[in-house]
Predict the structure.
Amino acid sequence: MVAVPVTREREQQVLTTVPRGLLIGGAWRESSGGRTFTVEDPATGAVLGEVADASREDAVAALDAAAAAQGSWMRTAPRRRAEILRRAFEIVTERAEDFALVITLEMGKPLAEARGEVVYGAEFLRWFAEEAVRDYGRYGPSPEGTSRLLVQRRPVGPCLLITPWNFPLAMATRKIAPALAAGCTMVVKPAKLTPLTTLLFAQVLIEAGVPAGVVNVLPSGSAAAISGALLPDPRLRKLSFTGSTPVGRRLLIDAAQNVLRTSMELGGNAPFLVFDDADIPAAVAGAMAAKMRNMGEACTAANRFLVHRPVAEEFAAGLSAAMGALRTGRGTLPETQVGPLIDAGARDDVDALVAKAVDAGAVVSTGGRAVDGGGYFYEPTVLTDVPHDAEILKEEIFGPVAPMTTFDTEEEAIRLANDTEYGLASYLFTRDYARMMRVTEQIEYGMVGFNAGVISNAAAPFGGVKQSGLGREGGAEGLAEYTATQYVGIADPFAMPGGPGRLG
Ligand code: NAP
C-alpha cells in the first residue's frame, strides 16, 4: 500500500467521492422527509458533511427492495456471488488509501491503524468469496436403511444488519460478506457517528456487480425507528447486531416477537493474564496491542490487567514506559499513535472511571487526564493497585486506560478472570503450555489470545459467551449464521415401485 500524504485538499477530494444518500433498490436517494444529519471529525469537532437521515418509511422501502431481490439473489450461482465478493475485495484494496482516510476522518484512529482496518475488513470479502462455493450439505442413508437423509443449507432470507462506529469498514464487511455469500439480501444500518465508510463501501459493492435491492443502506439519526419498523415485519428473517450489551438485549426482546434468527456481537471486559513464567517484554508488547488498538475503543480491548505478584512491578514499569511514550494527535498526522475518542461523552466517561478508581485507591502510573484543546483526546493511562471491586474493572472502559491488579495463584487468576458478566476476548501470557490448557479450559470466554495481543482474523470464529452475545462472525461459522438447515427425507429408492425391494 502506497501512503499518500494527507493535505486538506486530499481530505476534501476523498470526502467528495462518498455518497451521502440512502441506497434503496440500487439507487441513491434522499430520505423521505428530506432530512439530513451531520458527521463530525472527532479530532477537531469540524463537520465533515451531511448525510441523508432515513425514516421509518425509508426502512420499509428498503425491506421492500430486499424482499423483492431475495429470490433471484439466492438463485444466483454461488460462483457468481463469489466473483462479486472477490471483485469487491479487489476494489477496496485498490482504494485502500481512500478508505483509510475516510475511516480516520470520521472515527479518529491514526491512519496506520485505519490502513490495518482496511486490510482486515477487506479480508472478510476475500474469505467469504472463498467460502461461498463451499456451503456444503450432506446426504446418506438413515440408520434403518429405509430412507435417505438429505441435509442442505439454504439462505435464511432478508437480514437487518446493524453496525457500531468503532470499526466502520470491518464491522460492515464482517456481516455483509457472509450474508452475500449465503444468498441473503439485506438492509444495513451503520452507526450515525461513522456512516461515511459504509456509504463508500456500498458504492464499491454496486461497482463490483451486486444487483439492485440486494444491499440497501440506511444511515439514520433514529436507529430505533429503523429497527422498530423492520423487526416486526414478517419478511425480515434475521437480525445481526454489533454494539453494546444494553442495546443488544433490547433488540433481542424485540426480535423475539417475530422469532427472528439473531447474531449478537456485544460488549466485552477482557482480562489480560500475565503469569510469573511469561516473557515479560513480549507480554508488554501484547498488552500494548490488546489495549491500544483503536485507542482502547474495541470490544476485544484488554480491560483488566491481572498480573502474578512476582512480576507485577516489572510488567507495570514496562507498560507504563510504553504507554507514556505514545504520541497523541489527529489521526491524519504521520507522527500520531493515539487518536481522539469518538465524542465528548466517551471521553468524559473514561475520565469519570479513572477518577473513581483513584478515589478507591488506584495509583496513576502514567497519564490520568483528558488532553486540553480541541477534539476528544485522553492521555494513555496506566493505573496500578486497583482494588478488585473497583468499578473500572467491571465496566467496559472503551478508552486508552490500563487498570492493573495482582493475583497470587492460578486459581485466583481464573476466578478473577471469570468475575464479570461478559465473555468475549481474553489474553493469557505464560510459557507453560499445560497451564495454558488448564486456564483456557476454565475461563468462560469465546476467544483466548495465547501469548498474542491481537486475535481477530477473518478465518476464525469471532464471538462471545455470557452477555457478550450469541453466534460467531468469520470462519466457516460466519457463513452458517446466514443459512437455515433444511432436511429432506427421501423414501427408500429400493422399495419404490419398480425397485428390487430391500434385502434382509
Ligand atoms: P451501540 O450504542 O449499542 O450502537 C450500535 C449500533 O446500534 C449503532 O448502529 C446504533 O445506532 C444502533 N442502535 C442504538 N440504539 C438502537 C436501538 N434502540 N435500536 C436499533 N439500533 C440501535 O454501540 P456503539 O457505541 O456503537 O459501539 C460500541 C459497543 O459495541 C461496545 O459495547 C463494544 O464492545 C461493542 N462492539 C462489539 C463487537 C463485537 O464483535 N462483540 C465489536 C465492536 C463493538 P446509532 O449510531 O444511531 O446510535
Notes: The mean pLDDT is 97. The first strand starts at residue 22 and ends at 24. The pocket of NAP is lined by residues 162-166, 171, 189, 191-193, 223-224, 227, 242-244, 247, 250-251, 265-268, 299, 396, 424, 469 (CB under 6 Å).
